[in-house]
Design a protein that fits this description.
This protein has 230 residues and is of the alpha+beta class. It has seven helices and seven strands, in the order αβαααααββββββα. Strands 1-2-3-4 form a four-stranded antiparallel beta sheet. The relative contact order is 0.21.
């Protein structure tokens, strides 16, 4: 379970003992909103921030790993050029097309799926709805992807820490940035979902919804899902 510091802080900011709480994330990239909608909302961040180690890894990859891969590939080509070449297409009599027929068949299907669900299952797709407006300011309060959803006092509160990195078991500086009474939002989730793959939805009375996943602290996640499913 989350340590006492987390529960103590949650109790302090909501004013009473939480019924259930869980650290979670938007488990897919936020779709790009229309430019005018994004501009009207203040052009806030739509992606989480990254730790400096990620940038170090990227630099090492592009300046060390990639050159080594290219040199290795070049050496293989030079070695192969000294051997007799065989034209497989001429031998079999069948033209070879990049990607093959399977790729040609699947690419249109994927493109059609993206057109049918431009929101990619993250939310209902209506940027003017409650969920869409919440998404537009989701990362504006913190670059950290983790959010604490707290169920207490007839409200659903969403809190975050201003830090770029945090420990879900020890965080004690988070604060709420959104709060909804239970007559405006319903939490939809099923108990017994596989750990690591569990998700739940915040469904609002205007018909909009937002899906959240990557639930941290298994015991908190199990208790949270049992509570909302009951």
């Amino acid at each position: 379970m989350a340590k006492r510091a987390v529960h103590r802080r949650a109790r302090k900011i909501v004013g009473e003992e939480p019924v259930a709480l869980v650290w979670c994330e938007i488990h897919k990239p936020i779709p790009a909103p229309p430019k005018d909608v994004h501009r009207a909302a203040g052009k806030g961040r739509l992606k989480p921030g990254h730790h400096w180690l990620l940038y170090v890894g990227a630099v090492v990859f592009f300046f060390v790993v990639v050159p080594m891969m290219l040199l290795d590939k070049l050496g293989a080509r030079l070695d192969g050029s000294s051997r007799p070449r065989r034209n497989r297409a001429a031998r079999t009599g069948q033209p070879q097309t990049p990607g093959g027929p399977q790729r040609a068949a699947t690419d249109p299907e994927r493109a059609r799926d993206r057109r049918e669900d431009p929101a990619d299952g993250v939310f209902d797709g209506d940027w003017s709805g409650t969920a869409g407006q919440l998404l537009l300011r989701w990362y504006g309060h913190s670059p950290n992807p983790k959010r604490l959803v707290i169920l207490a006092g007839g409200h659903v509160s969403i809190a975050t820490s201003p830090r770029r990195r945090l420990s879900p078991t020890k965080a004690d500086d988070f604060r709420t940035f959104a709060e909804f009474p239970l007559d405006q939002v319903r939490i939809e989730g099923e108990a017994g979902q596989p750990r690591g793959f569990a998700t739940f939805r915040l469904s609002f009375t205007d018909g909009s919804w937002l899906e959240l996943g990557r639930l941290a602290e298994p015991e908190d996640a199990d208790h949270f899902l049992r509570t909302v499913s009951g």
